[in-house]
């Protein structure tokens, strides 16, 4: 793998060098004419993104590991090398785009940044130009009355820009960055969540024991997820070996504690938080986004399990709640993808169900009660162990749906810096799971005329709150972490556009 990566690196470097003069020309004058200059750069962003975003979308988001010595997912490099042509190209046709395709870097900048930014970073800038570029972009009415911003060079750890960076504001779904780091730290990237069928020989009771896996699926195509159908088939086979074809069916959700309902109440963005559910209790075939949920996910999943057992010749009673005893025999089990993959899916799709599940698993791993309060204590403790700035921070859930959460822009960039640390490869999924601008997850419909494929960021949106935190590779190949938090925003679309414009400016400003 190293040989392949080394072979492709000169090609990527040549392509990047060909594009850099044009990017630099477009970036000039940004400090004095930011808005007009940004409007002129959209063609460059499309060119830079064409291959970078595709490779990342196809490889980094779905890969489950492993890591190489630098903390880079080897799957990212393999996918980038496989898809990268001799040079990138702007494939957009239309008025004003006549002539030969323009050269652009293939996947090099983003992948090099994620795999080892120290090899491409130049001397750290003094931050003055960052203020000249970012101040006018952040101080706009669209971003409301309260805002915080931070930019960090991930190769050096040096803060390049801060404006209200220590102010704790409502982070919305950028809370999931904290959840991701805590989960990877507490559980490890390879840990899996197991759902099992336990049989009580004395009473002939079969208990479906929830393992807190929100990605358990009953669909015919499991696509790498733990399959309720597989569990039913294995369970039926084990029962038949015992000569059992009729059981009392129950379900066990005691892995979690406390109320299942989130403080926001019934909401299409989140199912009741329970240790047993199938397909996130969705009432349609969707796999992400808001949709009505069944009111009792555990009972619904167990009824589905009963139907699958019946198809294999095992009949059951109507299911009810119970608890598997120590005497119960585990007949069969299925396990989730590794936590690293769950974290990536959570961040890419802003999956609230995964976030709340991981919140509780961090609590359990830390000896806390597996509820909202226990998760808050456990996640905060894990972050404190990392030494990140927690003054004023408050975490009441794992998803960011709770408006009482408080994080600072400085804390978010510190967490991203921890995830980029080569000495902490276990945290790397925090970066690889970030949506790719213009290509994946919650950023797939944004940056269509901006830094597509160059920005990777977690979005956050609540009424009057808009946030964005992630990474961007600038024209010098430096990997920068950024976090922008805005509260009391008057209109969501205008706020999102302002945040995207600011992140885009980082990719081309060439700030020193």
Topology:
Blueprint: H1 2-27, H2 34-40, H3 42-60, H4 74-83, E1 88-89, E2 103-104, H5 108-116, H6 128-138, E3 146-153, E4 158-163, E5 168-169, H7 175-187, E6 194-200, E7 205-209, H8 228-241, E8 246-252, H9 297-311, E9 315-316, E10 320-321, E11 329-335, H10 339-349, H11 352-365, H12 372-386, E12 407-408, H13 409-420, H14 429-432, E13 455-462, E14 465-473, E15 479-487, H15 492-508
Parallel strand pairs: 7-8, 8-9, 8-10
Antiparallel strand pairs: 1-2, 3-4, 3-15, 5-12, 6-7, 6-11, 13-14, 14-15
Helix pairs in contact: 3-4, 6-15, 7-10, 7-11, 7-12, 8-9, 10-11, 11-12
How would you characterize this protein structure?
The protein is an alpha+beta fold. The chain has 15 helices and 15 strands. It has helices spanning 2-27, 34-40, 42-60, 74-83, 108-116, 128-138, 175-187, 228-241, 297-311, 339-349, 352-365, 372-386, 409-420, 429-432, 492-508, and strands spanning 88-89, 103-104, 146-153, 158-163, 168-169, 194-200, 205-209, 246-252, 315-316, 320-321, 329-335, 407-408, 455-462, 465-473, 479-487. The strands form 4 sheets. Strands 6, 7, 8, 9, 10 and 11 form a 6-stranded mixed β-sheet that branches. It has a 5-stranded antiparallel β-sheet with strand order 4-3-15-14-13, sandwiched between helices. A two-stranded antiparallel ribbon has the order 1-2. The longest helix has 26 residues, at 2-27. Residues 1-113 and 115-127 have low confidence and may be disordered.
């Amino acid at each position: 793998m190293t040989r392949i990566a080394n072979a492709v690196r000169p090609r990527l470097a040549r392509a990047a060098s060909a594009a850099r003069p044009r990017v630099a020309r477009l970036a000039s004058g940004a400090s004095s004419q930011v808005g007009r200059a940004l409007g002129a750069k959209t063609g460059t962003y499309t060119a830079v993104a064409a291959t970078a975003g595709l490779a990342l979308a196809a490889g980094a988001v779905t890969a489950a590991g492993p890591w190489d010595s630098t903390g880079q997912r080897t799957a990212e490099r393999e996918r980038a090398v496989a898809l990268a042509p001799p040079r990138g190209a702007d494939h957009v046709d239309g008025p004003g785009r006549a002539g030969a395709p323009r050269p652009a870097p293939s996947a090099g900048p983003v992948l090099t940044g994620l795999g080892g930014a120290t090899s491409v970073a130049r001397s750290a800038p003094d931050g003055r130009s960052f203020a000249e570029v970012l101040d006018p972009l952040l101080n706009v009415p669209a971003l409301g009355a309260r805002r915080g911003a931070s930019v960090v060079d991930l190769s050096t750890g040096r803060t390049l820009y801060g404006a209200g960076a220590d102010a704790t504001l409502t982070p919305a779904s950028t809370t999931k960055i904290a959840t991701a780091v805590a989960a990877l730290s507490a559980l490890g990237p390879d840990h899996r969540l197991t759902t099992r069928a336990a049989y009580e020989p004395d009473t002939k009771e079969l208990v479906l024991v929830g393992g807190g896996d929100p990605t358990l699926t009953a669909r015919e195509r499991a696509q790498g997820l733990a399959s309720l159908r597989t569990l039913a088939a294995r369970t039926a086979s084990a029962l038949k070996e015992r000569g059992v074809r009729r059981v009392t069916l129950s379900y066990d959700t005691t892995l979690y504690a406390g109320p299942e309902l989130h403080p926001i109440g019934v909401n299409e963005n989140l199912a009741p938080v329970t240790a047993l559910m199938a397909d996130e209790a969705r009432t349609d075939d969707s796999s992400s986004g808001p949709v009505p949920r069944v009111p009792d996910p555990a009972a619904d999943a167990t009824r589905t399990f009963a139907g699958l057992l019946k198809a294999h010749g095992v009949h059951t009673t109507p299911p009810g709640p119970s608890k598997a005893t120590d005497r119960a025999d585990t007949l069969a089990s299925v396990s989730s993808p590794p936590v690293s993959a769950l974290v990536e899916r959570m961040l890419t799709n802003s999956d609230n169900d995964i976030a709340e599940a991981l919140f509780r698993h961090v609590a359990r791993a830390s000896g806390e009660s597996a509820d909202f309060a226990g998760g808050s204590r456990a996640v905060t403790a894990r972050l404190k162990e990392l030494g990140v700035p927690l003054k004023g921070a408050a975490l009441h859930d794992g998803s960011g749906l709770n408006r009482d959460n408080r994080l600072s822009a400085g804390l978010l960039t510190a967490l991203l810096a921890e995830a980029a640390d080569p000495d902490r490869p276990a945290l790397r999924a925090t970066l690889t799971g970030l949506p790719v601008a213009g290509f994946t997850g919650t950023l797939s419909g944004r940056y269509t005329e901006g830094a597509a494929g160059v920005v990777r960021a977690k979005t956050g949106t609540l009424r009057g709150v808009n946030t964005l935190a992630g990474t961007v590779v600038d024209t010098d190949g430096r990997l920068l972490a950024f976090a922008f938090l805005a509260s009391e925003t008057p209109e969501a679309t205008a706020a999102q556009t302002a945040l995207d414009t600011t992140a885009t400016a980082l990719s081309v400003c060439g700030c020193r």
